[in-house]
Amino acid sequence: MYTQGLDSKTEQGAQPSPRLVTQDDIRFQERIDAEEKIEPRDWMPDGYRRTLVRQIAQHAHSEIVGMLPEGNWITRAPSLRRKVALLAKVQDEGGHGLYLYSASETLGVSRDELVEQLLAGKAKYSSIFNYPTLTWADIGAIGWLVDGAAIMNQVPLCRCSYGPYARAMVRVCREESFHQRQGYELMLALANGTAEQKRMAQDALNRWWWPSLMMFGPSDDQSAHSAQNMAWKIKRFSNDDLRQRFVDATVPQAEFLGLTIPDPDLRLNAETGHYDFGAIDWTEFNEILKGNGPCNRERLEARRKAWDEGAWVREAATAHAAKRAQRHMKKVG
Amino acid sequence: MDRKDWPLFEIFIRPKNGLSHKHVGSLHAADGRMALDNARDVYTRRGEGVSIWAVPAASIAASDPSDKASLFDPADDKIYRHPTFYEIPADVKNI
Fold first, then answer.
1. CB A117 within 8 A of CB A60
2. Is residue B57 part of a domain?
3. pLDDT over 70 for what percent of chain A?
4. Region A237-256: what's the mean pLDDT?
5. From CA A55, how far away is CA A2, in angstroms rounded?
6. Do B33 and A321 touch (CB under 8 A)?
7. Which residues from B are below 8 Å from A325, CB to CB?
8. Domain presence at residue B94
């Protein structure tokens, strides 16, 4: 989910190249196979470090950019209860971004350089945040489906081989469960409300269903990196596995809402016990990865604006710290 | 000092009295006071703490992972530091 686009030709240094396997590599793999955690400053192959930096950075950027579609509705939440819940959720996403930037810094990059890459349009974030939130029901659909999909992906990451990333995920997962419940409770209220509210909920589900399935990324046989990431225990389950789990968990939830998932091919397979679902049209996903989604430009502009207009806050904090230090020196000097 | 000089702080939170401060993550801030405020915002949103330590990462002396063997192996064969090394008959109580 957070490695979307890492296989594209524009990603430099990410292609697996044949190289000599050293004693260090062998010992490293033995530790991984023994379920040992890798901690900062432990020896690690360059590829492991690079892949983690890319994935954690994409994950962090996703959290920060993810604040935008939901932030859009804070001032228009229909009740105080909905407003405080949405504020708390968006605040959490900011915090999640920070946990992840912190984890990435243990690998030798700086948060500032990662943020620069994002603002320059050189870094990626999850495709799902390039869609607009058109109605209040979209907030419900996001909490229920998008956070639901994220949880499906993040729970296994709690056991990934890199200690700081795994620990950040444990914190994130604990906080994420309220996000999904907030969204589903909102959908419940709408689905059991007026006919117009139910229509709004159905419309949001219609627009967010397929993009949520696409969050898990294409089938792993399309990715050169999946096998290596599995061997390194960064990735624990395949994209298709996680997507299937998500569908199996979510279909009954939609049925309870009395809403229809927009997939005429969706049906319970009595033999496998899983839901079969229709083919995903990946053209939309690929367009978004190229930067041509409905909100790609808007998201980046919003982040750049926030950065530029926040310059005075950063400068003020720096000046204030300097003043405090001077006052302290005067007292003790 | 511009933002690029904001040092890295490692954050430790004491969940409640009786427990030790535990490492929870890191953040950049202009000084210790700002680090404490930000640590409160980022790491204690759900009442996770009664006390925060923000330590400049540069002040932390850390052992080198490649020294693990020489630092810690000598303790492994000193099993007489453990109570199980000593044989006390079962009839003897309170020991």
1. no
2. yes
3. 95
4. 97
5. 6
6. yes
7. 31
8. no
| Coarse DSSP helix, strand, coil percentages of chain B, rounded to the nearest 5 percent | 40, 20, 40
Of A98, A111, A321, the CB nearest to B42: A98
Average pLDDT across chain B, whole number: 91
pTM, entire model: 0.90
Structural domain total, chain B: 1
Q: Look up the ipTM and state it.
A: 0.86
Sites in chain B below the pLDDT cut of 70: 1-4
Q: Is B70 within the bounds of a domain?
A: no
Give residue B5's pLDDT.
75
* pLDDT (0 to 100) of residue A10: 42
Tell me what pLDDT residue A20 has: 78
Distance CA B35, CA A322 (A): 14
Tell me which residue range forms the domain holding B33: 3-64
Q: At what angle do helices A296-309 and A111-119 cross, to 10 degrees?
A: 130
* CA–CA min distance B46, chain A (Å): 9
Q: What is the mean pLDDT of residues A154-168?
A: 96
CA of A128: how far to CAs of A77, A146, A284, B74, B85, in Å? Answer: 22, 8, 11, 53, 59
| Chain A residues in contact with B46 (beta carbon < 8 A) | 175
B64 in contact with chain A, both atoms CB, cutoff 8 A: yes
B95 inside domain:
no
3-class DSSP state of A52: helix
Residues of A with Cβ-Cβ distance to B25 under 8 angstroms? 98-99, 102-103, 168, 171
**Average per-residue pLDDT for chain A:** 92
Binned at pLDDT 50, 70 and 90, residue A27 comes out as very high
Residue the block writes with tokens 């959720």: A89
Query: By CA distance, what is A94's nearest residue in B?
Result: B42
d(CA A233, CA A176) in angstroms, rounded, equals: 23
Chain A interface includes B67 (CB < 8 A): no
- B42–A95 C-beta distance less than 8 A: yes
| A320: closest chain B residue by CA | B30
Verify whether the Cβ–Cβ distance A41 to B30 is below 8 Å: no
Query: What's the pLDDT at A157?
Result: 96
CATH label of the domain that carries residue B35: 3.10.20.520
